[in-house]
Amino acid sequence: MYTIELEAEELQMVRSALGCYLQAFGHNEADLVKATRALLAKLPEQIETKAG
Fold it and tell me: Distance (Å, rounded) from C-alpha 39 to C-alpha 51?
C-alpha cells in the first residue's frame, strides 16, 4: 500500500482527471470503468481550504 499527501487543489485535480478518464470509456471497457470508480470512491471528498 502507498500513501501520498495532497493539497486540496491537488486532490481536486486528481478527482477531475479521473472523472475525465472515466468519461472516455465506452461499453467495451467495463473493467476499466469499474477500477476507476473504485479508485474514485477511495478518494476523500473535496475539502475546503482554510483562508489565511
Answer: 29
Closest by CA to 36, choosing from 48, 51, 49, 25, is 25
Largest CA distance in the chain: 48
pLDDT in tens, 8-49: 999 999 999 999 998 888 778 889 899 999 999 999 986 666
DSSP per-residue letters across 1-48: -------HHHHHHHHHHHHHHHHT--GGGHHHHHHHHHHHHHSPPP-P
> In the block, which residue shows the cell 479521473?
18
